[in-house]
Amino acid sequence: MNKLPLISLKGISKSFGKVAANKNINLNIYPGEIHALLGENGAGKSTLISIISGVYSPDSGNIEFNGNKVKFTSPKEAMNCGIGTIYQHFKLVEAMTARENIVLGHKGGIFSNKKKSDEEIKSISDRYGLEVDLNKYVSDMSVGERQNLEILKVLYRGAKVLILDEPTTVFTPQETEKLFKIMRKMKEQGCALIFISHKMDEVMEICDKITILRKGETIKTLHKEKTNPKEITDLMVGRSIDLSIEKVDCKIGKELLKVNNLTVLNEEGAEALKKLSFHIREGEVLGIAGIAGSGQKELCEAIAGISKVKNGQIVFEGENLEGKNPREFVKKGISMSFIPEDRLGMGLVASMDMVDNLLLKSYYTEKGFLINRKPIADKAKSLKKALEIKTPSIHYPIKYLSGGNIQKILLGRELSSNPKLLIMAYPVRGLDINTCFTIYNLINEAKSKGTAVLFVGEDLDVLMQLCDRIMVLCDGAESGTIKAEEATREKLGLMMVGAKC
Q: Would I find Transferase among this entry's keywords (predicted)?
């Protein structure tokens, strides 16, 4: 390995007001290396990546590229230097073809020599094993195809350092393996890759080195062969924690929710769910697996009374919920809680504090003109302590908190009503491992009380460990339901693409 780092960070610090996001960060990334960057939510990963990619300028410290000191004032300058970033939310124009997206913003842009640019793109595709149909529109691409296009786009622009931010969040195991093959090819070609993920098994499979961030500081850089998930997690959290997900065995009760031939339309008017039927019983966790956009969002929102049902029935304790909204649920005493995928858009109000967000679910049930806020403030204090919510005050706007703390507030509010049915859409997406285990424990506690849980997840290992049964959706229809103990990653992955197992 080249002894000279391709990129070197020396004493990087960055603050936002009184909050120090990065403190004296030191990090070396070498050519031909896949380097993981791990840490809890709020550890400073996003800020550091933004500094490397030119979004932010550091308050102090230096960046060296190939031994030369550099200073980026924009992402374009970082890209010109050879640093490309693939974000969780792709930066692609859906109404354009793959070819147009690749050359857009490049010298000459869409008016460049098509034959010459196609030859260059094909050369890069062959070298790294990237399969991209240049004439295909982004709107018609799968998640995996879009990611390949993003990688091809930054390689076409000369990237030598590639930053991948949670790249496998919505991938099937098969798509993840394809991405890892591409990453290994890039490593062989001398590229440096920075890999950010909360999936420990993926980090241990694909990475060479692992750097741990905690509270904005670099704690340690480890060689994969000389460490293990337990050591890594303990360093991230700052104390020893148990990595096993406890599966609670409890008595499965009566049928609580029954869905019959449910058909729901998406925002474009197409069928997002097609004649879906299933049931959940008291004290049972039913996992929902599927490629992103297979109808998970519409299913949760239809049961919660947010999306309109085209056909079919949603029966809760013998009562058909079709046509009723969430406020009617509360008035009728229907004991249901919903943790939406969009925490701040649908679940909570970012500009409000904990107290006001807890009030959102019950303020209209208060009698009289004035709302008694004291009981809610007491509940906020209780939740802050019980769930270890890190906030300066229960009156502090939640938009300034990390994703994990925001999710704890949402979960605390919904679980405090002791619901009979709990619907959860990707409740641990983007959260650090410590917060994830807090949420798994809360699910188990609810299950032990007889709550039925509908758990939409993307980590197949978690679904197999936490759930009693797993239903797999493919293109809005059920491709199978199996007991968790009979499931494997391979089986679930094949079912997610429509194969019958």
A: no
Location of each CATH 3.40.50.300 domain in the chain: 7-237, 250-335+422-501
The amino acid that residue 347 corresponds to is G
Angle, alpha carbons 201-203-206 (nearest 5°): 105
- The pLDDT > 70 percentage for the chain reads 95
End-to-end CA distance of the chain: 45
Is pLDDT at 365 greater than 70 in this prediction?
A: no
- CATH superfamily to which 7-237 belongs: P-loop containing nucleotide triphosphate hydrolases (3.40.50.300)
Task: Record the tokens describing residue 295, joined without a space.
Answer: 């109808």
Handedness of CA 139, 145, 151, 155 (dihedral sign): negative
**Residue 400 burial (CB count, 10 A):** 14
User: Do 477 and 496 contact (CB within 8 A), yes or no?
Assistant: no
Strand partners, 228: none
Fold of 250-335+422-501: Rossmann fold (3.40.50)
Q: Is 486 exposed, middle or buried (0-12, 13-18, 19+ CB in 10 A)?
A: exposed
